[in-house]
Amino acid sequence: MGSTIIVNDLRKHYGQVRAVDGVSFSVEEGEFFGILGPNGAGKTTTLEIVEGLREADSGTVEVLGMRPWPRNAKLLTRIGVQLQATSFFERLTAREQIRTFASLYGVAPKKADDMLGQVGLEDKADTPAERLSGGQGQRLSIACALVHDPDIVFLDEPSAALDPQARRNLWDLLRQINESGRTVVLTTHYMDEAESLCDRVAIMDDGRILELGPPASLVRGLESVTRISLETGTLSVESAAEIAGPGASVDDDGVSVTIGTDDPARVLTALAERNLLTGIQVRGATLEDVFLNLTGREYRA
């Protein structure tokens, strides 16, 4: 497999703001690639440059061996784009919406109708787009991005503002898209989404890539303790500290007693000897821990 996207030393400034500040990465054919970061990290700007929607100040981008800027007509038929905010034509039904998008690429109405079925919207074909739920609207948006059978699909925060059930249903759809052989590039600030879907992720902040690799590898590279929690009252803080041993932490927030340890096997064995394994929770490091370790914990609007 070769690289379908190659980005080298990409930069985009707005006055003193360095929205993209020396970003480099590549995406392999058939890969599900994620770009993660807090609000204002530069994710969307990076994606828009790669898609050919925005001109970079410097650096190079190749998509399927072509430069996306200036707008490349040969490339437009080979990529599908689902933007962060999608506006549909007023008063058109889901079927009319996707047929309109299909006509821009010379795709037959029958194929457009079939795409509605592929994203699970066949029963909503005659429903005006403004009456679709959030999850259904996102599915229609993705269907419009796929209707011309592109090689690469770009998705900018596709599950933002969706409820948990709609998000999980959307994840199933995104897996199907990737398993059909398409390369998928996703931006998100949901760590569980990236951990579940992506082969590799790039974590961005302040316009730069801080870490890049498979989610599991990034988690393994983080020096983080395992947290073992029991219901408060099950075990006293003093007894938990004795079990935990030197260097471990013990915290009681009134709901759970939590032991933070780098030797979970020994702690679990000690709890088992006391018949205290019922109802415990064991949590190792996650991609969210990696993300917070790299970008900090302060709130960003």
TrEMBL record:
SUPFAM superfamilies membership: P-loop containing nucleoside triphosphate hydrolases
Presence of keyword Cytoplasm: no
GO cellular component, one term: plasma membrane
PROSITE patterns according to UniProt: ABC_TRANSPORTER_2 (PS50893)
Protein's organism: Herbidospora galbida
GO biological process, one term: response to antibiotic
Family (UniProt): Belongs to the ABC transporter superfamily.
Subcellular location: Cell membrane
InterPro entries in alphabetical order: AAA+_ATPase (IPR003593), ABC_transporter-like_ATP-bd (IPR003439), ABC_transporter_ATP-binding (IPR050763), P-loop_NTPase (IPR027417)
Name this polypeptide is given: ABC transporter ATP-binding protein
Gene3D superfamilies xrefs: P-loop containing nucleotide triphosphate hydrolases
